[in-house]
Amino acid sequence: MEGTRKLNKDCTCLDVALKHCFTHASFDHLQPLFPTVRPLANRVIWFNNHRCTLSCHRRVDECRWKQEMKSQVSCVDEDDCESCRLAYCWWRTAAEFDKCAKLKLGFPNVSILTPRLRLLRELERLALVAPDGLNELQHKLLEYRSGDFWVPTGGITREDMDIPPVNTILLVGFSGSGKSSLINLMYSILGRSGLIPFAQTSSGSSNYTTMYMEEHNVLRSTRSGFCIYDSRGFDYHSTREALEEMSSWMSEGIHHNQPCFRYNDRATTADDAAMENITLRSSLNFLQREVNCVMVVANIAQIYKALKAGDLKPLEATRQLFSFPALRKSNENPLLILTHGDLLSTEERIDGRMKICEHLEISETNGVYDILCLNEYGFPVEESDPVSAYALTEAVYRALLISDRSHFPKMKFKDWAMLILLWLMRFMGFCFAFLADVCSNLGKRQKLRNEFDSRHYKLKP
What we know:
By secondary structure, this protein is α/β, with parallel strands linked by helices. The protein folds into three domains: 2-81; 122-405, Rossmann fold; 416-461. It has 13 helices and six strands. A six-stranded mixed beta sheet has the order 2-3-1-4-5-6, with helices on both faces.
């Protein structure tokens, strides 16, 4: 401390002396002062060099400390990454995973593999492609415009195809299957929305359900070539009503804010009734969209637990929903999305998927995706589970491939003429059927009247 004060005093004296000399004297007059000024300057230079040396040593010590801390933190990060990797690669703890790992060394005949090994290979494929493939698929979806995946078939050009400006993907499923959570995950992965929820979920409440059709632009882009529709969940005990409602959606189309009222729904108060009337009037202004592809969302945990309890109703209702002919587009089955798999153990999760696919009579590796929507804190998994993120992105990509194959050619003048002629023939047939029914009724009345008159004449004396 005393050395610092002395140095500051010497620097001050040196500065004052030099300023005074250079201001009021020439160079010749400065030479006698050099013996006095030189010791002060030497002391200042020595102290500055000593201070620089100390600061260098201090910086070296700080760098060593930071490197040690960084190495410790990196070790912790590696442990965390390893635990996270085990979390999203959940199938690697399965009993037969060792056999699947040995298959990587060669090129086995896929036809001789068991269904369980084929499933493990498919999950390993997702884990292998996910790190690099996710960004590539995201870029393709961002640049996608309706009809980009269309390929020429049947000798018809693209100009002659009736391609809508936006392809529509519809999510259907039973209550609590996770449709709204799946849409929030799409926003998080494809729209980079973070943890902001766009679709309202039940959050474990059995009282809340989606009452209206909701159109979602999950890319959050004005140039998006597709949209996702969230629908109201069906009831396992009202499958016939669900199929009738889906049939109308597939034939007539859907639009944003379209009511999904059921037979048991009643307006409890006057405010609810007024709100329903306002919604019905406003919903007519939205554009009607044709459904191009369907995703069936199923709660694998709920179905598997019901199976263990001997209840086949959820599985059978899912089969009826998935196998409904109106959902097939371009001879393709709808996509099956399995959710809530984290509520099961590894063996139960694999066994549940195998049983569901076997009952639906579909492949366990083609068009089926096991996606975890929420983490243990209730937030979208996003980048913490790259396998689920890539699986969801691939499912959307696959749905767009199916959508662009389902477009029909534009109707020409000949088609319109045939359609008008068909309607005229139907109208004429209806008229002739009506006239035939009227004439038949008149003939029956006349016959009854004649029989009554004949009996009346016979009874006269």
